[in-house]
Design a protein that fits this description.
Structural class: alpha/beta
Number of strands: 8
Largest sheet: 6 strands, mixed
Radius of gyration: 20 Å
């Protein structure tokens, strides 16, 4: 059977594919010890849940699987996270592997290479962005990232302009920059960027400017939607921007 290092490399090389993860789960089963067998179960359970229709989850029929996943991570998560746990403030397992981390931008720059060598991390919550802003947005580490949160980081328009000018953000699909100091210039930078063509979701709430489509609800059901003038102005000048719309809201961890 293929060794663990080879199996992990296959996961890291194709993070969107289920097959390498399921091969790792099969290898875990074969080890026979409780921690490894539990890891195989986690991988299969999270992949299965990822492919479960939303209406099934909403109806509560996936509740038992969700509780089992939580129990497995509570029991073995620290072991599975390994050295990563010492570098970050929090982790979240996605399809059986550490896929989301929260940490300061400085620690991400210092330890990102080590983290990426151990897990297929694609989802990132950062704090302290302003401490290392230019180095962060110039870092090739961002090429791994599909979803990025920089909420309440004290960001100004310049920081979104630096992000939008980075050639390393071409895989970014989901972005949250809530509770900062961003104006229309920040949203314009996203719209004008040649590197953010895959961006499908952006959260600008609690900023001086929020150009994103608003939704009206009645009893939890969307009954109305409208685009703020700032959003209309952006699309008039830069064309259709999927991240300005809320007709389809992608899940952060969707493949």
């Amino acid at each position: 059977m293929t060794d663990e290092a080879t199996l992990l490399k296959a996961v890291l090389d194709a993070p969107d594919d289920d097959a390498p993860r399921l091969a790792y789960a099969q290898w875990s089963d074969a080890q026979g010890d409780a921690v490894s067998v539990a890891r195989g179960e986690l991988i299969r359970a999270q992949i299965g849940l990822m492919h479960t229709p939303p209406e099934v989850i909403a109806a509560g029929r996936a509740f038992v699987v969700q509780r089992r996943i939580e129990a497995l991570i509570d029991r073995h998560g620290a072991t599975w996270a390994g050295a990563i746990a010492g570098w970050v403030d929090a982790v979240h397992f996605v399809r059986g592997f550490v896929g989301w981390i929260k940490l300061s931008a400085r620690r991400f720059l210092d330890h990102g290479d080590g983290i990426m060598a151990l897990a297929p991390v694609q989802h990132l919550d950062l704090t302290g962005v302003r401490d290392v802003d230019e180095a962060l947005f110039d870092s090739p580490l961002l090429a791994h990232i599909r979803s990025l949160s920089m909420d309440a980081c004290g960001l100004h328009d310049l920081h979104l302009q630096l992000l939008a000018a980075s050639p390393h953000v071409t895989h970014l699909r989901w972005l949250s920059v809530a509770d900062n100091h961003l104006t229309l210039a920040a949203a314009e930078a996203l719209a004008a960027s040649p590197f953010l063509r895959d961006l499908r979701y952006a959260e600008f709430r609690s900023n001086p400017t929020d150009p994103v489509e608003r939704l009206g609800y009645d009893s939890g059901i969307v009954v109305a939607s409208w685009m703020p003038p700032e959003g209309k102005d952006i699309e008039a000048r830069f064309g259709h921007q999927p991240w300005l719309h809320r007709d389809v809201i992608p899940g952060r961890f969707e493949v």
